[in-house]
Amino acid sequence: xxxxxxxxxxxxxxxxxxxxxxxxxxxxxxxxxxxxxxxxxxxxxxxxxxxxxxxxxxxxxxxxxxxxxxxxxxxxxxxxxxxxxxxxxxxxxxxxxxxxxxxxxxxxxxxxxx
Amino acid sequence: xxxxxxxxxxxxxxxxxxxxxxxxxxxxxxxxxxxxxxxxxxxxxxxxxxxxxxxxxxxxxxxxxxxxxxxxxxxxxxxxxxxxxxxxxxxxxxxxxxxxxxxxxxxxxxxxxx
Lengths: 114, 114
What we know:
The structure holds two protein chains of two kinds.
Chain A lengths: L4 E3 L2 E4 L5 E6 L6 E7 L5 E8 L2 E5 L7 E4 L6 E5 L8 E8 L8 E2 L3 E5 L1
Parallel strand pairs in A: 2-11
Antiparallel strand pairs in A: 1-3, 3-8, 4-5, 4-9, 5-6, 7-8, 9-10, 9-11
Chain B lengths: L3 E3 L2 E5 L4 E7 L6 E7 L5 E8 L4 E4 L2 E6 L4 E6 L8 E8 L10 E2 L3 E6 L1
Parallel strand pairs in B: 2-11
Antiparallel strand pairs in B: 1-3, 3-8, 4-5, 4-9, 6-7, 7-8, 9-10, 9-11
């Protein structure tokens, strides 16, 4: 069964460093998403991406964040200068089309900023 | 704004039914979802219900939606040890599609007693 994959599974970084989180969505999916979950808190929507541009973004997704689809398979989330409060689990998701019930999630990347 | 609330823990005996409850605030929600997260894994879509439905059944899972009270529940019949996980309620207000993110609750930890 096709699935969303994410790398790395864990990342530790120093405050102020840049990190890139990688995702490979399901191959025939057209919509891509990033969510984050700070420990003990809710899963929060960050951004959605369609047709090589951002479709929607939340107020969390400020100028420190960017997304890119550098090739036909990868979807990345870059955090330019990490802060302590960026420590969280980051989930990538993808969906085939415009119907919401088909969002499939990856296993997540746990980011720890020291 | 949208908000989704769930109780944090539910403990049931193996073989009993589990009922996980969720309340939401946005009356314009179009789709409501239940996701399951096992330790170390991503979010797995269990089931969803469209806002014009009251009930949906899928094998051991029954979803009930009370739009008047903005209350959603997930019933798991004959709960097994493999059902032990965190269950997230989520809503989408996207009217029939689009790339809007989902709004999640904090998740309910389902604990199975032997």
